[in-house]
Design goal:
180 residues, mainly beta, seven-stranded mixed beta sheet, five-stranded antiparallel beta sheet, 1 helix, 6% helix
Length: 180
């Protein structure tokens, strides 16, 4: 197998969508922004990475996405709606698919916050039946967390992301603009 380089960490807009890409630099990995709401990630085992396309700011909306998401040997990876809020600072995951590790079992630190080393809460929702495509009503999750005493702040970015840790695999995901 050809050894890949490491795509530099970055965030911004591409072809009408916000994108965010981060890795700890320990995995050979290539993140590529494709046309419209599409992106691809090819990664090899070694470190931690997360990235995808979506919106900045995020909000309660119906998100429709499709594509392929293939961790090798069912490795440690997620396909997730991933985002942040500020005041309070919250990192959230709406897990659509995952490999060998169910993140509901325990939580571990994954990366710095969007505010440096500030302490923050993580909120998780994990689909009972895994899927790689469909529509997600993020407002349902935001409302449920709030009613459970888990407040969200002002929305920062929100992306349909591929995340992986010490695994290998590939994904090619297309995020569609939600209906207004």
């Amino acid at each position: 197998m050809r050894r890949q380089g490491i795509t530099a960490n970055s965030a911004g807009t591409h072809d009408g969508y916000y994108y965010s890409w981060w890795s700890d630099g320990a995995s050979p990995v290539t993140y590529t922004n494709l046309a419209g709401g599409s992106y691809s990630v090819d990664w090899q085992s070694g470190g931690n990475l997360v990235g995808g396309k979506g919106w900045s700011p995020g909000s309660a909306k119906n998100i429709t996405y499709s594509g392929t998401w293939t961790p090798v040997n069912n490795g440690n990876a997620y396909l997730t709606i991933y985002g942040w809020t500020k005041n309070p600072l919250v990192e959230y995951y709406i897990i659509e698919n995952y490999g060998e590790y169910n993140p509901g079992g325990s939580a571990t630190p994954r990366q710095p916050s969007i505010e440096g080393t500030s302490t923050f809460n993580q909120y998780w929702a994990i689909r009972t039946e895994k899927r790689t495509g469909g529509t997600v009503d993020t407002g349902v999750f935001f409302d449920a967390w709030t009613k459970a005493g888990m407040p969200l702040g002002t929305h920062d970015y929100m992306v349909v992301a591929t995340e992986a840790y010490r695994s290998a695999g590939s994904s090619r995901i297309t995020v569609e603009t939600p209906l207004k």
